[in-house]
């Protein structure tokens, strides 16, 4: 009974990574760092048509990401990839990470909470960052066969509802925890909705949060009208 009682009051603190703990996206800068500017630019040209399809809503965000991974990572040696991730973390830590986010993570860890990153970025890229923070990591899984990346994702892109599903697959029902969550994009809505303490763009400048709040309200208004009509 004591064990169960302590479990129901356990705090689970979940941080999105890109744009929340960082100033901007990490995956594209990582690819540029790992492959070099010339190779990066050459392969990026192969994504022009898929990006155009995405803009015309003929290709989903997840499908575009899968194409990006296929173009850059098919046949890449896993050991080399991990080395590049370590080097990227060392080189970009100060430039990439938000100081206020680092303080928040440290406070959650020191409070005794279970702390994890939950991100759509590949876990192999973010593992050095999670290790340096001393917390756990949930991210999009890249398929590896015989030590080589296949250019495919294992399972689903870890965003939107997948964040909640991945968390529950590891920690069990989120209702067993006092959930605290930090996020900054549409991909974090479901996670934030499941949390008792939800923090939207908590580490962003005040002007950024105000602008984002207005955009979210405009998106929500049609949904509210629709629900009222029915």
TrEMBL record:
NCBIfam families: HAD-SF-IB, HAD-SF-IB-hyp1
Record's protein name: HAD family hydrolase
GO molecular function annotations of the record: hydrolase activity
Domain of life where this protein originates: Bacteria
Enzyme Commission number, as recorded: 3.1.3.-
This protein's UniProt keywords: Hydrolase, Metal-binding
Presence of the UniProt keyword Transcription in the record: no
Name of the top EC class for this enzyme: hydrolase
């Amino acid at each position: 009974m004591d064990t169960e009682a302590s479990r129901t009051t356990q705090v689970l603190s979940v941080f999105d990574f890109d744009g929340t703990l960082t100033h901007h996206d990490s995956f594209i800068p990582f690819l540029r760092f790992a492959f070099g500017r010339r190779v990066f630019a050459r392969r990026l040209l192969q994504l022009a048509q898929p990006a155009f399809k995405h803009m015309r809503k003929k290709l989903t965000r997840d499908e575009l990401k899968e194409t990006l991974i296929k173009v850059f990572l098919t046949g890449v040696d896993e050991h080399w990839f991990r080395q590049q991730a370590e080097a990227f973390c060392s080189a970009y830590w100060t430039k990439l990470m938000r100081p206020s986010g680092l303080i928040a993570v440290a406070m959650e860890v020191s409070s005794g909470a279970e702390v994890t990153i939950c991100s759509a970025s590949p876990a192999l890229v973010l593992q050095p960052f999670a290790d340096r923070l001393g917390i756990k990591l949930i991210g999009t899984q890249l398929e590896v066969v015989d030590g080589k990346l296949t250019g495919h994702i294992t399972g689903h892109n870890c965003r939107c509802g997948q964040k909640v599903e991945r968390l529950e697959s590891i920690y069990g029902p989120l209702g067993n925890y006092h959930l605290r969550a930090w996020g900054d994009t549409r991909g974090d809505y479901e996670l934030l909705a499941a949390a008792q303490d939800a923090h939207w763009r908590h580490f962003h400048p005040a002007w950024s949060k105000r602008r984002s709040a207005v955009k979210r309200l405009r998106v929500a208004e049609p949904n509210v009208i629709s629900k009222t009509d029915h």
